[in-house]
């Protein structure tokens, strides 16, 4: 009987693999989503607001302080958990919260749930000028690493954790920091970047050099390292710093034109 069960499991796995290769859209529609499916609309130019529409019993999770307004029937609750593991215990929630603090987030997260019978809206904004970028983790198909404090909000079910750079030198000189935010799930997440944010898709042989601090986020699989900007003249008079960020595919990279550190330098 056990051999028969193992054979059935093996055949099922082979069939799922064939379906994902031959009929990816059909299979993705059949797979049960872990995260809530939310609709959204982004308003504004350089000072943007994202308006999230929640169906009954849907929840959006956000950084405390990011909320701008919410309509009636939406309840607001602060929790230590991000909602990705409903059955986890108190100490597990506390450990997850501690990891978020290390990644630059707050100890607790704000949960906005539609308790009514109609669709309701809640909106979120960022703390400094820039653009809000939506990313569908389900379409991306892999975890997303983003700059500390760039997370704005996400559909409930998204795991908000901590990620580390590939090396100490990248962490100290790469501009994004040694510790980053790691977002895992299959729903929509929203992050904020300073200035204009552009997305670059890198193939396996593609390489990209960027100013340290301009790297807002990258998908799992991208090799993020640093390199010297060149000779003595380049380092001293080039204006781009002594170190450049180097990214190698395959994967996606999001770059910001005006990091928060640059904004502070321009003001002061």
Question: How would you describe this structure to a colleague?
Answer:
This protein has seven helices and 19 strands. The protein has helices spanning 2-22, 24-30, 90-102, 137-140, 168-173, 232-237, 260-267, and strands at 39-43, 49-54, 59-62, 67-70, 74-79, 109-114, 120-125, 131-136, 144-146, 151-155, 159-164, 179-184, 188-193, 197-202, 207-211, 215-219, 223-228, 243-248, 251-256. It has a six-stranded antiparallel β-sheet. A six-stranded antiparallel β-sheet has the order 11-12-9-16-19-14, covered by helices on one side. Helix 1 (2-22) packs across helix 2. It starts with a helix and ends with a helix. The model is unreliable at 26-31 (pLDDT under 50).
> How are strands sequenced across the largest beta sheet?
5-6-3-10-13-8
Q: What percentage of residues falls in helices of 4 or more residues?
A: 10-25%
Query: In percent terms, what proportion of residues is strand?
Result: 35-45%
If helices are DSSP runs of H or I spanning 4 or more residues, what is the number of helices? 7
Cα distance spanning the termini: 73 Å
Radius of gyration: 21 Å
User: What general form does the structure show?
Assistant: globular
Topology as H/E string?
A: HHEEEEEHEEEHEEEHEEEEEEHEEH
Unreliable stretches, pLDDT < 50, 5 or more residues? 26-31
On the 0-100 scale, what is the average pLDDT?
78
**Based on helices, strands and strand pairing, what is the structural class?**
alpha+beta
User: What's the total count of β strands?
Assistant: 19
**Main beta sheet:** 6 strands, antiparallel
